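Human: I'm a chemist; would you kindly supply sequence and structure tokens for a protein?

Assistant:
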Amino acid sequence: MDLKNKEQVKKLIKGCKRGDRKSQRVLYETLYPKMLGVCMRYSSDSSQAKDLVQDGFIKVFQKIKTFNYKGSLEGWVRRLIVNNSIDYIRKSKQIQYNYEEESNLFNMKDKTPEIQEDNKLIRLKAETIVKLIQELSPAYRTVFNLYVIEDMSHREISEQLGISEGTSKSNLSKAKVKLRELYNEQLEQYDRENKV
């Protein structure tokens, strides 16, 4: 289904609002691959990500009647899927935030250097990057995804997760450091295997 065709999308939404199984299936099959990618970034493995997508779509179909045609359907579904993933992580108590030195972080800028764009970066596939993100702790992974992927501010993250802005900044900074370490390990392994 082409989600850019406004008439098709309106018809699809109306069908989903009526509880039409065929319309629900079309929406699910159309957005499943993208939403699975979203959930992969919040989960520790593909099995958990698939469960998050399933649960997320249940909520989508429960709340579809509230969709007001403002903004894109895909964006609306994505927001519900992300919120569902965060709720799952929070409820399962997987998140343990690092509150250390929180007060000093408001005046501190992220001093970690950015990953340099070079030819080594090209050697890592997107799938590998997602796996690296999955290796982060749930707290680091969640804050990283919300800030970098979902483009939320630290204030929004703190409100969403019930933590302070300083904790959000701290977890993002530490997530970047850990990702850099994991990334460098991957590159070293790649170089050893390919004797670069």
